[in-house]
């Protein structure tokens, strides 16, 4: 038993001495049944947040959902949620999957009304009640089912699988919650076969959410697990609307859009690689067709004479010599000059910049 679980049982017993019941629930119970160390520990309680605050001195509210709050013990945070219903069995009946519908009480006894222990042993995914109602309580559970298939190696039973297929077309959820599930799914995809399973499952979801089977034509280049950027590129294909729907921020969407276009123009010149940036280039390289040969973005980027605009030998006062409307073009011209073999020295760049401006002026007249 790790330190976090021991601390959680101490909390449960302290609360019990004051007249309230509390239980360890969810993933911590499932992980224990699987013989794994729980990553975190969630608690359900019959006491109020005010009661916990009196006992432990401090709580921190987690958003507004279900009045969930954090309590701390020995430096470990524990998420505490009020009991739903009058008994722990009522609360467990509302859980997503049978493997998660068990609890430990303060005496470390397992409360398992729906057969979680057996489900874990059989690596079976099922609902503790009606699967349709279970999914409809939180549609994000459709994505969670995919994650449990991949990350835990569990297999949905026939009833759960049929319900998933029937309801998936109506999926919708807050973008930030979808993005969180996608991020949790990524490190579990460690083979082409598992990536194909993601494509197969998400094909039942509406268009913004599914992984197109077309993307799998490049699978033989994949070095699993994919990076976060390559993963987002695989789902969004550089489409900003899809990126928004999947909860990716503006910076990620812009980087992915560049990477999506760059896939079509490989191999890249030094100037093209510089404009693209190492981050976007690396993501694009992860998804290039195998017939493009070996891709060594890091090596090529390391050999560039400049990696960032700030590497130019020009000073701010040098750029200020030119009209404001021309400064951006001047800097870009100097970057191109250096990337194509020009000397990155202040005097050389100033001379080149003045020559370029002179030519531009001549063209105007």
UniProtKB/TrEMBL annotation:
**What residue stretches are annotated with the Poly A polymerase head domain?**
23-125
Keyword Endoplasmic reticulum assigned to the entry: answer is no
| Gene3D superfamilies listed in its UniProt record | Beta Polymerase, domain 2, cca-adding enzyme, domain 2
Q: Which cofactor does it need?
A: Mg(2+)
The molecular function terms in GO held by this entry are: metal ion binding; nucleotidyltransferase activity; tRNA binding
Pfam annotation, one family: PolyA_pol
Single GO biological process annotation from the record = tRNA processing
User: Keyword annotations for this protein?
Assistant: Magnesium, Metal-binding, Nucleotidyltransferase, RNA-binding, Transferase, tRNA processing
Sequence similarity: Belongs to the tRNA nucleotidyltransferase/poly(A) polymerase family.
Q: What is this protein called?
A: Poly A polymerase head domain-containing protein
Per the UniProt entry, what species is this protein from, by scientific name? Answer: Alkalicoccus luteus
């Amino acid at each position: 038993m790790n330190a976090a679980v021991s601390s959680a049982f101490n909390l449960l017993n302290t609360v019990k001495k004051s007249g309230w019941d509390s239980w360890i629930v969810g993933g911590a119970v499932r992980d224990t049944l699987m013989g794994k160390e729980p990553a975190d520990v969630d608690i359900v309680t019959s006491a109020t947040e005010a009661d916990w605050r009196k006992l432990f001195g401090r709580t921190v509210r987690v958003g507004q959902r279900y009045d969930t709050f954090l309590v701390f013990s020995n430096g470990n945070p524990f998420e505490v949620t009020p009991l739903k219903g009058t008994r722990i069995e009522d609360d467990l009946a509302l859980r997503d999957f049978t493997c998660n519908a068990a609890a430990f009480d303060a005496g470390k006894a397992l409360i398992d009304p729906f057969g979680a222990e057996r489900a874990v042993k059989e690596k079976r995914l099922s609902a503790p009640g009606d699967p349709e109602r279970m999914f409809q309580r939180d549609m994000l559970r459709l994505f969670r089912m995919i994650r449990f298939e991949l990350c835990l190696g569990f297999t949905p039973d026939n009833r759960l699988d049929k319900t998933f297929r029937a309801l998936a077309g109506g999926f919708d959820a807050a973008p930030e919650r979808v993005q969180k599930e996608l991020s949790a799914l990524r490190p579990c995809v460690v083979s082409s076969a598992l990536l194909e399973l993601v494509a197969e499952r998400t094909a039942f979801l509406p268009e913004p959410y599914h992984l197109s089977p077309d993307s799998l034509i490049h699978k033989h280049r994949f070095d699993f697990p994919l990076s976060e950027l390559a993963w987002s590129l695989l789902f969004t294909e550089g489409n900003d609307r899809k990126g928004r729907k999947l909860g990716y921020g503006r910076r990620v969407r812009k980087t992915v859009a560049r990477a999506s276009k760059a896939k079509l123009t490989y191999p890249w010149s030094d100037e093209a690689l510089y404009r693209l940036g190492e981050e976007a280039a690396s993501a694009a390289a992860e998804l290039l067709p195998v017939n493009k040969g070996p891709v060594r973005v890091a090596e090529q980027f390391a050999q560039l004479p400049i990696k960032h605009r700030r590497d130019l030998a020009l000073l701010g006062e040098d750029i200020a010599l030119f009209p404001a409307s021309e400064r951006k073009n001047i800097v870009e011209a100097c970057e191109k000059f250096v990337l194509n073999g020009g000397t990155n020295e202040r005097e050389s760049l100033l001379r080149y910049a003045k020559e370029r401006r002179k030519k531009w002026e001549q063209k105007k007249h």
